[in-house]
Amino acid sequence: MKIDLGVDQEPEIGLVALIDCIFFLLMFFMVATTFKQSEDSHRMRSIPVDLPKAAATFRAEEAPSTGIVIAVAHDGGVFIDGVAATQGQLHDRLRDLAAHDTHAIVRIDGDRRAQFQDVVSVMDQCAFEGLTNLAVHVRN
Q1: Strand residue runs (E) in the chain
Q2: How many CB atoms lie within 10 A of CB 78?
Q3: Are 84 and 47 a contacting pair, CB within 8 Å?
Q4: Would the pTM of this model clear 0.70, i.e. be above it?
Q5: 121 burial via Cβ count (<10 Å: 0-12, 13-18, 19+)
Q6: What is the pLDDT of residues 48-92, one digit of tens each?
Q7: Which domains does the chain have, with CATH numbers?
Q8: CA distances from 109 to 12, 85, 88, 89, 106 (A)
Q9: Which DSSP letter does residue 35 get?
Q10: In this structure, what is the dihedral angle of CA atoms 39, 50, 90, 59, given to the nearest 10 degrees?
């Protein structure tokens, strides 16, 4: 015996569920791409520099944009924009920077265990090339 349940409906695709799935995928990819680090910040994190702490410093939005970043490691090694460099390469890079813009900002990241003489040596080379807009980077 056949039971009559009413009017037969044609099957249809649930668009609401499909739209929900698409929005979830869209949000997932948007969030996943914000976690991707830029190449420059990834290189800078690989430098073996342990910055000293400071009581007061610029907030990230107040920090000036840098023309060049020079890191001095605890063993006296020098890194220019994340790439290991010799003293001669540092001198050449500073000379080229001074030739283009004498007001360029040179940020020096000195390891807290580095000898002060190594950091002063970098500062002297900057002064020798006429670069006087120096910033020393520390962490809070």
Answers
A1: 68-72, 78-80, 83-85, 106-110, 134-136
A2: 19
A3: no
A4: no
A5: middle
A6: 666 667 665 555 444 455 578 999 998 989 999 889 999 999 999
A7: 39-136 (3.30.420.270)
A8: 63, 14, 19, 17, 10
A9: T
A10: 70
